[in-house]
Design goal:
Layout (H helix, E strand, L loop, with lengths): L35 H5 L16 H26 L3 H24 L4 H22 L15 H26 L1
Helix pairs in contact: 2-3, 2-4, 2-5
């Protein structure tokens, strides 16, 4: 990444394919989010813009709706990590694990009617509100290019989390039978 910057690119930006869309490297700056160079460039932890990919509250809502709070916690953790807070990222995953157990426990006592269908919507709204509270001012403005996470990744990851959790529950049912 020691290639000279292309005219018009910010200092520290790498030219060519290596600096654009590389694994964990911002296409806008060519700087890895959360790195010392990222902090010097004014990205990441301070603002959450320009080269920091964040998942929106809407994306976190959908992740929770499809893949339980654990999937939402994964994207909350990715947001925390993108902003340079690794400890908070681990805490998000821990909270998501406990929240998944809690909402599953509540769901087991709900009648199989309207409330059981509304329960995921209710807890997903609560998780999206939490995301707005924690990351509110750091989300990029609507319409900015490349600063939001991929919807396809949100949907695929959430579906994968749901399948894994279903497999774990099925295995537990076989063992407890």
């Amino acid at each position: 990444m020691n290639e000279p910057a292309i005219q018009g690119e910010p200092p520290g930006a790498a030219s060519g394919a290596a600096g654009v869309g590389g694994a964990g490297v911002s296409g806008a700056t060519g700087i890895r989010p959360g790195s010392a160079a990222d902090a010097e460039a004014g990205n990441g932890a301070a603002t959450g813009t320009a080269g920091t990919t964040l998942y929106s509250p809407g994306q976190i809502y959908v992740a929770s709706l499809i893949g339980t709070p654990l999937a939402a916690a994964w994207f909350l953790a990715l947001n925390s990590r993108a902003l340079g807070d690794r400890k908070q990222a681990g805490n998000q995953l821990l909270r998501g694990t406990f929240a998944t157990a809690a909402v599953s426990g509540v769901a087991s006592f709900l009648p199989i009617q309207a409330w059981s269908l509304l329960w995921p919507i209710v807890y997903s709204f609560a998780i999206a509100a939490y995301a707005r509270k924690v990351f509110g001012g750091r989300y990029p403005a609507a319409g900015t290019r490349g600063d939001r996470g991929s919807w396809w990744l949100v949907i695929a990851t959430s579906a994968a989390v749901l399948l894994v959790l279903m497999g774990v529950m099925y295995a537990m049912a076989l063992v407890l039978r």
